[in-house]
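Let us work through a complete example step by step.
Step 1: write down the sequence.
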Amino acid sequence: MEDSESQLLSDEEQTPEALLSSLDIFLFSLIAGLLIYWFFFRKKTEPVPEIKPFTAVTPQIRETSFVEKMKKTKRNIVVFYGSQTGTAEEFANRLAKDAQRYGMKGMAADPEEYDLSELSRLKEIPNSMAVFCMATYGEGDPTDNAQEFYDWMQETDDDLEGVNFAVFGLGNKTYEHFNATGKYTDKRLAELGGNRVFDLGLGDDDSNLEEDFISWKEQFWPAVCEFFGVEATGEDSSIRQFELVVHNDINMNQVYTGEMGRLKSFQAQKPPFDSKNPFLATVTVNRKLNKGGNRYLMHIELDTTGSKIRYDSGDHVAVYPTNDAAVVNRIGERLGVDLDTVISLKNLDEESNKKHPFPCPTTYRVALTHYLDINNMPRTNVLYELAQFASDPQEQENMRKMASASPEGKALYQNWVLDSERNILAILEDLPSLNPPIDHLCELLPRLQARYYSIASSSKVHPTSIHICAVVIEYTTRTERVFKGVATNWLKNREVTDNGHKHTVPMYVRRSQFRLPFKPSNPIIMIGPGTGIAPFMGFIQERAWQKEQGKEVGETILYFGCRHKNEDFLYQQELEEFERAGVLTQLNVAFSRDQEHKDRAVLAMWSEKFSLSSITTPRFLAVFEGVMVDEPNWKIYVQHILKKNKEQLWKLIHSNNAHIYVCGDARNMARDVHTAFYEIAEEVGSLTHTQAVDYFKKLMTKGRYSQDVWS
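Step 2: predict the structure and record it as tokens.
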């Protein structure tokens, strides 16, 4: 150690010039570095006070001001959409596209992306107007993306004088609050001084939403032309919104394979999980619920471990299904294309927020499998656009006729497409001369939407597992084709195997207002036939958990209905166990197709109601649900058992603050249950019919009568 130090010292003494040179270089580098740092630091900081206001304002105008965007892109019509399932968005895009045919320029816009408080500025653009395609969701609520706009309408006192507008509402008459959002939007905009250019349109999805829209649109445009003093251009040809880009040499890591938002999001999962970023939940249980019959009812459990997903009893789970691979292949074969070609559909309007109709770049196969709805019947605009690709004059004429607003065209579309349930593959097969470019077809088809299921479990009992109860949709159509529901058949095939392969399901949770009472001591009355029992399995599990926690739990009463006790009594073992444990205070089941309801007590009730002289006659007639039916065809549903227990129910509702929950079919069951409760209020509570209706409306307002229904 000493020798080495001496050697180093000796070397240093022998080379003084080398030491000086090193110091010079070091000092020079240090000074130069300081000068460079000072120069760039000064360059960054000096302009900041001048440009800060500029950078803070311009992105906001560019991103949220639809008025500035319309001015910049020379548009005079904006079509806003409140859409939950994509239909209102589709209608908005069609209207914006149609504007070109009438000498105007339109844009479709998501109200969530723009500042709607600027609506009063729309009059700054000559001959301008705003159109609103507003869907109603839930119990008369606005859609998620229109909630902010709806809140603004309620709170604002802006003067909309000089702002031209029109509204088309999308609703379903089976629901009590039919088209509530569309009606409110039309009414409120007029109250604020807006100028209604054309009457409110009300589309009914329970009847024929497409026909309602077409009929409204056919009158809307002439009214707009007359209002602005313009004439239709007569341009009837197809107007493309996207152009095809084929990627012949691309890194496949840059290609979408089914992701909804972020590329490779399925490989590298990151919370939070939502509609643009679903979680891949593993299927841990997939079993058949029913013991017999020709239907298939299933119970599925999804493992959400590690996702941080939370849910409450009554929430919905959204599932992204994929289309049947066989149908996708047949479309490719019919059109003679290589489905594995990597493509992008690029918006021709560079200013549009919607750059692609679905995630791109991707392949035709992925687009048809994950992104596009190929199973439902196409709307008339798709037929209209595709007609030009039919070489047979008669086929082309029929397609254009079906897309028209004429009575003959509407009848043809209703019969040939809707009643016959022809999807796009069936149409291609039944119109041999129709050969559209597949990229044009992909542009026209609507997006494949997530399917929502009422969660059949409680997070208090199953914090990392979400349960689904569903019936598989499969039947033969008028054209002898087998129609298969996309989601239910896909879920059915997500089987749990022993070979190590685990099926996953892209999902997220959507919150609902279908909630247990805040106080567990409140009684609850649940009415849910068929798969309508789903949320009540969660409710009952939670009431059991509350009892285990030592809480006072009120009466828990279930009214369930199915066809046959020995076939489709869903969750029979679990429900009977809950009843034995005292969690389920009362289990009432209506077996509509069984004959067990012929007990004398039930028949006596109906005999008295309809003044029948005898209930022992082998075959007697009775007025049943407004129809004359004979005894062997009698069916007992949940609403009939409700009436049988009317005194108990009225006491629970009127005196004990019970909460009522209805889940299932909106078209018939929910209405009939409504009627049963009205009759109970009239017969036991001595209310008039009007008073009974008002009574239950108030319960709904207070959150004591909740519905989770579908049509």
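Step 3: interpret the result. The longest strand covers residues 279-288.
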